[in-house]
Write a structure and sequence with these properties.
By secondary structure, this protein is of the alpha+beta class. Helix content is 51%, strand content 22%. The termini are far apart.
């Protein structure tokens, strides 16, 4: 999406066409940095979800190796970390 305006610190907007090229490039880079910083937690959640899927696949594969198995799932109050304990019956 092309930038058409520049937001000044006082809250005013000016068109980007009269702004010097180096200032416009710095402004664009700053806006991209702010956007990536704002989206970082969501990217981390997505990567954690991918890791969780891989962990689930590994556990399923191990369960198929053992005939009978019981899985204990322990969760913290924050529910961020899951501890899996594989116990043979």
């Amino acid at each position: 999406m092309p930038f058409e305006i520049v937001v000044l610190q006082v809250g005013n907007y000016i068109p980007i066409s009269p702004v010097r090229d180096d200032v416009a490039a710095a402004y664009k880079k700053g806006m991209e940095w702010k956007a990536s910083k704002m989206l970082l937690p969501y990217k981390q959640l997505c990567s954690e979800k991918k890791e969780t899927d891989r962990l689930r696949q590994v556990i399923e594969k191990e369960m198929l190796k053992v005939e009978k198995m019981k899985i204990k799932v322990k969760m913290t109050n924050i529910a961020i970390f899951l501890l899996f304990e594989l116990v043979r019956i």
